[in-house]
Amino acid sequence: MSRSIEGLIFDLDGTVYLGNAALPGAVEGIAALRQQGKHVLFVSNKPLEPRDTYAKKLANLGIDATPDDVITSAYVLGYHLAQTEPHLNLYVVGEENLLHELRGHGLQIVNEFMEQDPMDVIRTNGVDAVVVAFDRTLSYRKLNTAYQALQTGARFFATNADKACPMPGGAIPDAGGTIAALEHMTGRKVELLAGKPSNLITQVALQK
Amino acid sequence: MSRSIEGLIFDLDGTVYLGNAALPGAVEGIAALRQQGKHVLFVSNKPLEPRDTYAKKLANLGIDATPDDVITSAYVLGYHLAQTEPHLNLYVVGEENLLHELRGHGLQIVNEFMEQDPMDVIRTNGVDAVVVAFDRTLSYRKLNTAYQALQTGARFFATNADKACPMPGGAIPDAGGTIAALEHMTGRKVELLAGKPSNLITQVALQK
Prior knowledge:
The structure is a homodimer.
Chain A: E1 7-11, E2 17-18, E3 21-22, H1 26-35, E4 39-44, H2 51-60, E5 70-72, H3 73-84, E6 89-93, H4 96-104, E7 108-109, E8 129-132, H5 140-151, E9 155-158, E10 164-167, E11 170-173, H6 175-186, E12 192-193, H7 200-206
Parallel strand pairs in A: 1-4, 4-5, 6-7, 6-8, 8-9, 9-12
Antiparallel strand pairs in A: 2-3, 10-11
Helix pairs in contact in A: 3-4, 5-6
């Protein structure tokens, strides 16, 4: 391998492991690269787990990794917004890990407007931006809230735009469907995508 | 008005009434048409209410109407499927009124697979077709179930494809967003649309 390559970025699911098993050659290959002095990072488009969960999973497979070696779409979005737009109030269509990650970067998340009827026009006062993510707790209330905020001018961000997430026995709906629904209903387009294929995830990796 | 016109079809929301008030001239205009011997029908793309609810609402506004004078997208879909595909097992992303309407046409609706985890790949054995409708009880479980059924070859029907439904103070997400999400994720297209702008609703009206 060329000496000019200082580091490598590996995708996790389907590249380093599949389910809970390392893929053939992955453990040995990464060890060999590190012996050559290469810097190895791991990326995942999934915003569902914290970075230390991935680091522990890698360690269990025989690949040393710290949370700092792992980059997720949730981390990239939090890192980027904290640098560029730290004062936006975010409404998040996402799971608990993403909320935790964004708050960890000092970002503000507005409440869920639970006092309003989800079947009415929800008043999203105070929301500056909508964040759409892989969310297995998606509901009409969340879709309606995001829709109303986008209709009244909120900015439109997403962690990732995958159509479906591979799972044992198939795949389940990912953020791409929610984004498509909101884009179709509002005529808006996502303006910032943190995960692959956006180059934001690469930019953040290169700063490591 | 030309004598060759035997009947007229009126849209309801925003044409005959807005909210709970008749629009100016609607009551008198419809009465005049009927005095001329014209057959008047009322249509709504909304699959949320039974036809007799609309008939009662019209009567309260001073417009005589029976349930037979009213055509909804739910009625059109039920009527059409009962004539053409009466033996399909339907999985319905929709509200209670739609289930009731479809069952009233003798159609079979499969259960919600509640014993399966909505965060896993849901096995939709026995589903022949997915019906997508305006559904203010949309959930990740429903989206995942419809996705899995479509991925394994189920047919793809919808009551209506409106992006949003007008409401006091704005609009709320309608079936169009759910259709866009499922079309985007599966690469499939809705093959049968009951409501406007499909001509199926007109065909059913002309049989009246």
